[in-house]
Amino acid sequence: MKKLVALLLSFCLLFGMLAVASADAETKTGAAQGFGSEVKVTVTVEDGKITALDVDDKGETYPVAREDSVEKVIAAIIEANGTEGVDVNTGATFTCTAVVNAVNAALAETADAPAAELAFTAGTYEATAYGYNGNVTANVTFSESKLEAIEITASVETAHVGDVAYDIMIPEMIEANGSGVDGVSGATFTSRALRTIVNDAAEQAACTNLDAFKAAKIEHTAQDAIDVTADVVVVGAGGAGIAAAAQATQNGNSVLVIEKNAEVGGNTLVSGGQFQSVMPYVVWDPADPDAETGVYAHNGQTYNKYKSVQGCINELKMILNWSEEPFDEEFYKENEFVAGDAAELSKHGVHQEYLPVLQELKKEIQAYLDWAQPKLDAGIPENQLALFSTLNLHIFQTYYGGLRQSADKSQWIYGDIDLVKQFINDGQGLKEWLEDQGAHFLEDQQNTLIGALWYRENEYEPQDGNWGTYFVGPVKTIGEDNIMLRTTATDLIIEDGKVTGVKATRYDGTEVTAHATKGVVLATGGYAANINLVLENNIYWDTQYLTTSTKTTNRSSQVGDGIVMAEKAGAATTGMGFTQLMPISWVDNGNLAFGGGNYACWINPTTGHRFVDEGSERDVLSLAEFRNGIVKNNTPGVFVEIYNAAQKVPGPPTAQLQPTDFTGRYYHIKGTVEALTALFADPEFEGVTADPATVLETVKAYDQAVMGLGEYPDVGKGIASRTIGNVDKTEDGKYIPDTYNLEDTDLIVRLMAPSTHHTMGGIVVDTQRHVLNADGAIIPGLYAAGEVTGGIHGGNRLGGNAIVEIFVSGRTAANTIAAE
Looking at the record's lineage, which domain of life comes first (predicted)? Predict the structure, then answer.
């Protein structure tokens, strides 16, 4: 957004009238790094006075309204005729500081002024700043006149996401003798942390001109234009793009991948990493119902069956009774549609294209219950029975988990059945495809995660992480020389109505023309990091909850540029008004906290009671948080989560919590009133007014329900995998209530809130991943895969459905190109 604030003050103050612009007026320009982008300013100076300040901050996002932050700073700079004494502590500190630094840089640029000479107190200085996952610490060395070295000594930044900023920015800072170098796309938090560290160290070293040091940067020079041709050009190197490129390579096509970030991986690298797909060999087998093991055909190994979880069978019984009548929209014109209330939804029919799936699923469920019920009646706990899981269950849960109504009740949205069936059915081969390229999975696990609705997640070996599982092998398949990093696609090339290539620009300004002889695949991801675009299209969330202050779990690069390019080529879009929020995001920066509601108890911070079924869909959880949480640092929906510290948090290695507290995020305590009282007295818990004794009574009542000794307090729960307090079990998995103990249990307490996570809408595609125009016709030469597309997940995506869909759709696009 570009704003012009012009306040002609000098003559107004002296004579009470507007001054006439002087013939000597001149404009000066400057730039400085803000929160997520470079902030540029144009300063107008007349007769030694600043009379206007034009700020280009269109790449920034704000935790508070812009008029309460940046515009106040602009006015203050004009009134003060400079930046001295201007307060930047406005809630948008990084952007406002960038405005000040950019103005200083502009005013320092006079034709006859020599370049500022820098001097330091020679030595090595340690500094620390907060990055993406936690603190980054570095030793910064200065000579008497120059920045000599920057050594990162401690960092928990995500590999191949944040840490790539070090190798790029550190050499440039040393060459520039300053910290004003460009940040690295996709590594915004780490770039900012590194810049803060170096500035802190320079201040410790008594830098003689800190403003000049902060403004010093490398001016990149565009090289000769690049003109390249490949069979398939892929735009975006996240999961969908890398899958498309690897499959295209395996199909014998030459490939060029264009990626704006400094490393491949996209949002997939900062996701939970699991994907939903049935592992038939570890779930209940109707052909051998009493089997306790199964064989994974891909490796010939035998694995134990995965056990069911308390509540799964009740969920199956609800589906078994689902009405087969056509879906009754009329009922919801007169009655509130409560997202996530599947029990009520099941009474009002089904969209008829999903009826055959439902009918087949009912047959599968009935066969399972015919086997399971006698065992339950004989006293065998549900958690000792093999888990029921079929492709039809996955398809149907994706349908009703994504069935949503717009806020004004005028529109319904749910996944296109052909697209849903495709990614779920074809997802059955995804694990094998990845394993053939070197990935490793936990072959006997079918866990769950937040908003997944079922135990169906495929988990990788922890030491591999998202990078080792999803990218190392496919990148080898593609060949690194066929991936062009730090290059932003800007336009599609269209010739005679066919998409034949891509125009792009490298980080240094070099122009790139990439010709595609067979097809272009758009795999640029969603736009959850572009809050203005989210708000512009929003028809789902109440505007008191979704605002310009809403944070995101996404990398800063996810702004919807692929959708814009496709629309210019005539592509249609669908579902753009629905954005999924992640209910478990850190309050301080919106990043994904990781976790699962199946093992946790969520507490209203004012009443001390539960307020939602923690295993619900993500939008259901987020809405409940908004309605029951508190506002903290301009972030609404802040709530308290409590769980047993022995519980492993679902997600990549970076999801695992440290044994020490992380201020503002998570804390380790014992389950006593004294410990919780002391915790709630911490300033970070300001606004949490719940009585600690009430909270712990809620937890105890919750645990009693998990053990089957009562009803869940405050609100029911479909599936719960464990108690919060410690309790022993018999060999056959039954709880021993007399051993229950909360007071001596090590607990973790987390503070979290919703932030934007996945944009449900995007480009309209068919099952072959052709991009379609408004008339439903194929746009020749153009394909799309992953979150850039719409129509698949409806209005809400199940947790773990993204990775399987993006990889399947990427491979599908490549196979379509090969077939055509």
Answer: Bacteria
Domain that holds residue 25: 2-108
26: in domain: yes
Supply φ then ψ for residue 293, to 5 degrees: -140, 165
Q: Which residues contact 309 (CB under 8 A, 6 or more apart)?
A: 382, 383, 387, 455, 598, 719, 720, 721
The half-sphere exposure of 627 on its side-chain side, counting CA atoms within 13 A, is: 11
Residue with tokens 């003559």: 11
Task: Look up residue 436 and give its DSSP letter.
Answer: T
* Element of type H or E holding 444: none
In this structure, which amino acid lies at residue 661?
D
Distance CA(528)–CA(526), nearest Å, equals 6
pTM of the model: 0.89
Instruction: Give CA 560 to chain center in angstroms.
Output: 14
What does the pLDDT look like over 167-196, one tens digit per residue?
999 999 999 999 999 999 989 999 999 999
Identify whether residues 47 and 100 lie together within a single domain. yes
- Strands 26-33 vs 762-763: parallel, antiparallel or unpaired: unpaired
Whether residues 85 and 135 share a domain: the answer is no
Where does the pLDDT of residue 730 fall: very low under 50, low under 70, confident under 90, or very high at 90 and above?
very high
- Give, in order, the Cα–Cα distances in Å from 759 to each of 347, 565, 715: 29, 17, 29
Whether residue 802 has pLDDT greater than 90 = yes
Structure confidence by residue, pLDDT tens digits, 208-238: 999 999 999 998 999 999 999 999 999 999 9
Residue 33 lies in a domain: yes
- The verdict on 31 and 103 lying in the same domain is yes
Number of domains in the chain: 2
User: 41-99, pLDDT tens digit by residue?
Assistant: 999 988 888 999 999 887 666 655 677 788 888 988 998 888 988 887 766 777 888 88
**What are the residues whose beta carbons fall under 8 Å from the beta carbon of 815, sequence distance 6 or more?**
247, 251
Residue-wise burial string across 703-720, b where 16 or more C-beta atoms lie within 10 A, e elsewhere: bbbbbeeeebbbeebbbb
Query: Using CA atoms, how far apart are residues 469 and 281, in angstroms rounded to an integer?
Result: 21
Instruction: Read off the DSSP letter of residue 735.
Output: B
Report the sign of the C-alpha dihedral through residues 549, 787, 466, 580, in that order. positive
CA gap 406, 409 in Å, rounded: 5
Best CA proximity match to 198, nearest among 231, 151, 154, 234? 151
Map residue 353 onto helix, strand or coil: helix
For residue 189, the SS3 value is helix
| Last residue in a domain, options 215, 239, 271 | 215
Token pair recorded at residue 83:
């930046």
- Does 429 map to a domain? no
- Whether 57 is covered by a domain: the verdict is yes
Q: In this structure, are strands 26-33 and 38-46 parallel, antiparallel, or unpaired?
A: antiparallel
Mean pLDDT of all residues in the chain?
93
Task: Please say which residue of 75, 108, 141 terminates a domain.
Answer: 108
Of the candidates 792, 807, 257, the residue with the CA atom closest to the CA atom of residue 521: 257
Q: Which residue has the tokens 């694990």?
A: 431
> What is the spatial distance between Cα 546 and Cα 439, in angstroms, rounded to a whole number?
38
Q: Which ranges in 251-354 belong to alpha helices (H)?
A: 312-320, 329-334, 342-345
Assign 3-class secondary structure to 754-810: EEEEEECCEECECCCCEEEECCCCEEEEEEECHHHECCCCCCCCCCCHHHHHHHHHH
Amino acid 424 reads I
> With contact defined as beta carbons under 8 Å apart, do 656 and 734 qualify?
no
